[in-house]
Amino acid sequence: MKITSIHGYHLAFQLPEAVGNSTGFFDRRESFVLRLEGEGGISGWGEASAAQQAVSGYIRQKLAKLVLGRPAHETGRRYAEMTDGFGYDRQGTAMLAVSAVDMALHDAAAREQGVSIATMLGGALRERMLAYASGPFFKPDGDPYRDFEKDADALLERNFRAIKPRCGYTPEADGRMALALRRQLGWDRALMADINQGYTAAAALDSARHMQEAGLLWIEEPVRPDDIPGYRRMAEGSATAIAGGESLSTLAGFRDFLAAGCVSVLQPDLSICGGYTGFKKVAALAEAYGIPVMPHVFGTVVNLYSSLQMAATLKAYRGGGPLPYPFIECDATHNPLLELAGRVNPDADGCIAIPDGPGFGLTLTEEQLAPFVTEHWVERL
Ligand SMILES: [Mg+2]
Question: Ligand 1 centroid vs 139 CA: distance in angstroms?
Answer without folding.
Answer: 17
